[in-house]
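FAQ: What does the model actually see?

It sees only this:
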Amino acid sequence: MTYLDEDELPNLAPEAPWRTDKRLQRAAVKSAKPGEVVETYYTIGALASALGKEPVTIRRWIRLKVIPEAPYITPPIIGTRGDAGLRVWKEEQIVLIVLVAHECGLLGRRPQSLDKSNFESVLKQRWQEHGWPL
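And it is asked to produce this:
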């Protein structure tokens, strides 16, 4: 595994906006036992922020199967979005997407064209290596 310092990839810094903006996070209780474990899940806005893209771009990439669909969904939110839940990702999934995008030259001031990169195939391979469903 290649480790990058925060200067090389500031979107992965602990204080990056997608990690600190509570509007982009959804907490989910994994266990109801004493000392319960709460995991934080992130919305499509957080993924977009981490990649330096707009949410509409991420939705298009999902529709085109460039990136895997969100593996988790929140319970329905009544009265909004047709009573649908939010698509959410774990932090480690967002970090993987950002790392692969960086490796494939899709981030930065002069990003490579998505069509000319191998982002989709590399991401799918790495995603499967983690055992996450596509």
